């Protein structure tokens, strides 16, 4: 399949000669030389062409059905995004593709975003595997998929990491977002909300809201039974004075080798780990001042695990923007942390371990106070009372009843 082109003067016209599922041709809007594309339809044709050539035509069929029967429910995709970024740091920008319609969407679609004044886009990634994201220019990102599925009232989430220089003068950044459709798709029938411009406020570090996250153990549980599941409850409280909105991590370690963490609840918490060490993360956490949230850690005790079991946990605010700063610093120092995406994955943890070993720090592969001080010259994100960030809970593991 090769594109065929004809030109006249400075304008060119290209036609994609391959066949889509419906057998039709897809014209590409004309553009002038090396200049930017003249219309969003050209962007849609080029940016989505490869992904859509083999994709389903469910969206087109849905749109056709809606045209035949005006009473039929239809999908309605719309972009949203609102953020606050700190000057002189990486910033995580949350973007969503919402389905505001009454029917599920299943077809080819995507989103394109840009920032003005321009800030460097470090990375873009989607939680929906059908969306493939890339940075197309310093201040532009694009995510597209041939089989995007979004149920009514739900959304696909995209995380974009941008770098805000310390000398960035503007107080606001305009974040433009546009839903992308293939040329063969007529859209969702509501083009009015396919585009949005949201405002990102740029604040100084001194303007960050004062928050005190405290961790306390629930002392009601006194013992667990050997060879059975045991639940340990911790309370995460925002003592204020400001509301908290961000990411919370709780790291827990048990002092017995004969126990293994098996999970946590409620479902807001996503936990990783093995054996007696566990890290639980609550992304997009929102805790109002003077409000407490529970974290229940479930563990399985060994049949021979008798005696005291002490489990210590520590709460911290570890935002993706903070992780991105660490990734960038590691890469600049010659330790390959991979893409600067704000996610502390396997590659980032390996780079942290290598850096820790090379600099005489305890090798944990995790972000901690010593690493932050050595690498970035700072301690962990400021908390008004760090003394209440850590707590321990001791229970007695007893033999099963005869």
Overview of the molecule:
The longest helix has 13 residues, at 40-52. The chain is globular and about 70 Å long. It has helices at 40-52, 58-68, 320-332, 346-358, 369-375; strands at 3-8, 11-16, 26-32, 77-80, 83-86, 89-99, 105-116, 120-126, 132-137, 140-150, 155-164, 172-180, 195-203, 213-217, 223-225, 229-238, 244-254, 259-265, 270-274, 277-287, 291-301, 307-317, 390-398. A hairpin with a 2-residue loop joins strand 9 (132-137) and strand 10 (140-150). Residues 1-71 have low confidence and may be disordered. It starts with a strand and ends with a strand. Helix content is 14%, strand content 46%. The strands form five sheets. It has a six-stranded mixed beta sheet with strand order 5-13-12-7-10-9. A six-stranded mixed beta sheet has the order 15-23-22-17-20-19, with no helix packed on it. Strands 4-6-11-8 form a four-stranded antiparallel beta sheet. It has three domains: 36-206, Immunoglobulin-like (Sandwich); 213-319 and 381-398, Immunoglobulin-like (Sandwich), CATH 2.60.40; 320-375, no CATH class. It contains five helices and 23 strands. The chain has 402 residues and is mainly beta.
């Amino acid at each position: 399949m090769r594109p065929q082109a004809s030109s006249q003067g400075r304008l060119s016209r290209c036609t994609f000669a391959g066949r889509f599922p419906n057998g039709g041709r897809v014209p590409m809007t004309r553009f002038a030389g090396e200049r930017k594309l003249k219309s969003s339809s050209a962007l849609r044709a080029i940016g989505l062409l490869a992904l859509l050539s083999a994709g389903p035509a469910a969206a087109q069929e849905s749109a056709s059905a809606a045209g035949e029967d005006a009473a039929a429910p239809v999908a309605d995709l719309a972009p949203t995004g609102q953020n606050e970024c700190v000057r002189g740091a990486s910033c995580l920008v949350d973007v969503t593709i919402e389905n505001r319609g009454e029917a599920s969407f299943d077809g080819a679609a995507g989103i394109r975003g840009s920032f003005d004044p321009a800030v460097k886009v470090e990375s873009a990634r989607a939680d929906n595997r059908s969306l493939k994201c890339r940075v197309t220019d310093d201040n532009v990102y694009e995510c597209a998929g041939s089989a995007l599925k979004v149920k009514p009232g739900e959304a696909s989430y995209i995380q974009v990491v941008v770098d805000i220089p310390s000398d960035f003068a503007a107080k606001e950044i305009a974040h433009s977002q546009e839903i992308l459709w293939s040329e063969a798709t007529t859209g969702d029938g509501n083009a009015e909300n396919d585009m949005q411009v949201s405002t990102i406020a740029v604040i100084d570090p001194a303007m960050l809201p004062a928050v005190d996250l405290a961790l306390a153990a629930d002392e009601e549980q006194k013992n667990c039974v050997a060879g059975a599941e045991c639940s340990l409850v911790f309370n995460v409280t925002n003592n204020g004075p400001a509301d908290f909105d961000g990411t919370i991590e709780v790291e827990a370690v048990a002092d017995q080798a004969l126990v293994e963490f098996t999970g946590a609840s409620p479902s807001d918490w996503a936990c990783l780990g093995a054996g007696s060490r566990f890290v639980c993360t609550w992304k997009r956490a929102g805790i109002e001042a003077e409000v407490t949230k529970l974290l229940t850690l479930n563990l399985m005790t060994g049949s021979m695990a008798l005696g005291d079991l002490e489990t210590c946990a520590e709460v911290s605010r570890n935002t993706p923007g903070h992780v991105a700063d660490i990734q960038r610093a590691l890469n600049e120092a010659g330790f390959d942390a991979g893409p600067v995406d704000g996610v502390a994955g396997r590659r980032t943890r390996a780079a942290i371990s290598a850096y820790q070993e090379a600099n005489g720090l305890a090798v944990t592969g995790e972000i901690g106070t010593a690493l932050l001080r050595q690498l970035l010259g700072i301690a962990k994100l400021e908390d008004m009372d760090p003394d209440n960030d850590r707590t321990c809970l001791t229970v007695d593991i007893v033999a099963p009843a005869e």
